Amino acid sequence: MADLAVQAEGLVKRFGDFTAVDGVSFELRTGEVVGYLGPNGSGKTTTIRLLLGLLRPTAGRATVLGYDAEHQTASLRPLVGYMSQKFALYDELTIAENVSFYAGVYGLSTAVQRRRQAEVLDWVGLRGSEGERAGEVSSGWRQRLALAIALVHQPRLLFLDEPTSGVDPMARRVFWDLIDELAQAGVTVFVSTHYMDEAEYCGRLGIMSDGHLLAMDSPAALKRDTLPGPAWNLVVDRLIPALHALREMPGIFQVGLRGDHLHAITLGGAHSRDSLQVALQGQGFTVVVEPAGPTLEDVFMALAGRGRAKE
Q1: pLDDT digits (tens, 9 = 90+) for 231-242
Q2: What total of structural domains would you count in the chain?
Q3: How far is the C-alpha of 200 from the C-alpha of 212, rounded, in Å?
Q4: Nearest in space to 206 (alpha carbons), one of 1, 58, 8, 49
Q5: Which of 2, 89, 203, 211 could disulfide-link to 22, CB 3.0 to 4.6 Å?
């Protein structure tokens, strides 16, 4: 279909006896921002490399911008940008020299190189710093430079593999503002992350665990449709004993520590605020219970099978 940027159908990738990606299928629509959430080793990077044609699938197929990702990579690569986990920057070169080098790799003429270099460095906020050596700037600036390089040839589809790992929260927020601008300009963005807060920024979100795509939908829909009941925050005097007590209580789907309090998901109408408070007070705890919004961490835990219920 013309409005689809990516169609992945039953992608499998095995490395010997290890299955890194196991039967992954999804579609990306043109111009949307789709997140790929999961812990390290869950198969996110392998999926991206399969879509880029950098790995051959053991089974399944992927169509990217109308091209077969495995067999038509030469036609596909000028149309996509890729920012890998480890930014492929040349530390001894300046910011401008790095952009110029990659523009040449993509085959841009000298005149176009100059224009695009100015445009992308201005867009990512690095104009005026062209002479700085890449190895001497902050991680946030290196991140912006890597994004500029991935965009210098004006790709229609951008793959970002954990692009904000290791940078400060302010730099992460700026980076996501740039992603939003790209999407508004019609670029399709597929971004992997293990940060739950970043996943909230995505229009749709795929959740990976142990090579399996557990679900893909909007963050709001995932929280609405995955969890079996309401969420609660519990401020209690003895956290760990209360945690164990809740786990043994009927009608509790999942419970865990959240900083200085407990966070629980209950089954349907099994509990109210008063019933939770009375049950814990009856076991000698001092507790305050408040309704809470469900989180993507709740969703991930539920989908990964870690939530449990006692009837």
Answers
A1: 999 999 999 999
A2: 2
A3: 21
A4: 8
A5: 211
